[in-house]
Amino acid sequence: TPVVAVVGRPNVGKSSLVNRVLGRREAVVEDVPGVTRDRVAYDASWLGRPFTLVDTGGWETDAEGMAASVARQAEYAAQAADVVLFVVDATVGVTDADAAVTRVLRSTRRPVVLAANKVDGAAQEAEAMELWNLGVGEPIAVSALHGRGTGDLLDAVAAHFPDREEEAGERASGEEGPRRIALLGRPNVGKSSLLNRLAGEDRVVVDPTAGTTRDAVDELIELGGITWKFIDTAGIRRRFRRLQGADYYATVRTSSALERAEVAVVLMDVSEPLAEQDIRVVEQVMESGRAMVLAFNKWDTLDEDRRYYLEKEIDRQLSRVSWAPRVNISARTGRHMEKLVPAIETGLASWDARIPTGRLNSWLKELVAATPPPVRGGRQPKILFATQADVRPPHFVLFTTGFLEDNYRRFIERRLREDFGFEGSPIKVSMRIRE
Ligand code: GDP
């Protein structure tokens, strides 16, 4: 996976930005042995693209003066990275150390994305623009504290990643072969029971996948006349999770299964209250950008009372994924097994979907005419046009003359779902401001 190194002088907010990018992923930390002892790499992903985020925050030594040591840190990072994320404090402006980092980065010729941090509001936007003076390209205004702009920042970073097609394991457009499903859920929700029911012993074909986690084994299972690839079923059947450190490995395992999957079936156990661990798995899937189906298992145990509370729990805890189709099943009795495949197919179709630019723009024109973006700083931002920049999952980019409030972007996202569906797939709406 591509490596992104975060560099910058102390106190510009590197660590906050790293945490912001990782969300709750801090659990998956690995120490990369190598040149510098303090280097820490994290698994991260953006729109389904996994990458490694290297935090250089711990590298500073001041023996040789701050500017020099920060510049050296940037040099190491640049050597190791595919993309350098250079963080500058917009409220302070360019310091000697920033200038020193810039010189080093120029000489390494790595792609650099410039983050103008601490742009917490409109007041700092002009300050951010001063950072054009560094000569490393467009400063992207972000607030690591509030999360503002980080999506645009990651878009800019991801633009330097190698093409999806070049990366092994990713489905290129038109790619053949069975589609890949990750069956996920905390221990004991019934994953292996479901797998056994779906597979039936004689139809199981073990498919050892080269170049993946050493003991990851996928299975090809025929359902509804179609062959599907279930990812890392060895991990499900082997019950590795009951060993020590199970939680940690479960998280890592889930994220590596997600990397190779296209759609996740998240299994939950309705005989117990929804647990924090269930929500964590759902969040991991959301972050991965994969299609998602929620399967509520052990439905045979449900009584009226529990059913009432379950609905409340779902409303309260899973409202952010109201777009995911739900199936109520029992791996034990076989209840509603036939609903699983159509739900998976729905999710994948949405994940693959592309709205033609013409149709998208006539839709948008009508929407904006009825509900224009809110005036901001006395100016009415105009949306010039929109395009669907990517599929798997669908990603829409709005080209505008000014900043659109997050509320308005969310409004557009909601309306996209209302009018075009996308059931079972995450979608993303971002913006590019043109003067
Ligand atoms: P895993 O850890 O997610 O793979 O869960 P298992 O498949 O090992 O199942 C955990 C327990 O739940 C076992 O005792 C299963 O028999 C039971 N179980 C699985 N599915 C169902 C179901 O649909 N109904 C009931 N009542 N029990 C189930």
From TrEMBL:
Binding site for GTP 1: 8-15, 55-59, 117-120
Keywords: GTP-binding, Nucleotide-binding, Repeat, Ribosome biogenesis
SUPFAM superfamilies: P-loop containing nucleoside triphosphate hydrolases (SSF52540)
Record-linked CDD domains: EngA1 (cd01894), EngA2 (cd01895)
Any matching Pfam family: MMR_HSR1
Binding site for GTP 2: 185-192, 232-236, 297-300
The keyword rRNA processing is assigned to this record: no
PANTHER family in UniProt: GTPASE DER (PTHR43834:SF6)
Subunit structure: Associates with the 50S ribosomal subunit.
Family to which the UniProt record says this protein belongs: Belongs to the TRAFAC class TrmE-Era-EngA-EngB-Septin-like GTPase superfamily. EngA (Der) GTPase family.
UniProt function note: GTPase that plays an essential role in the late steps of ribosome biogenesis.
Protein name: GTPase Der
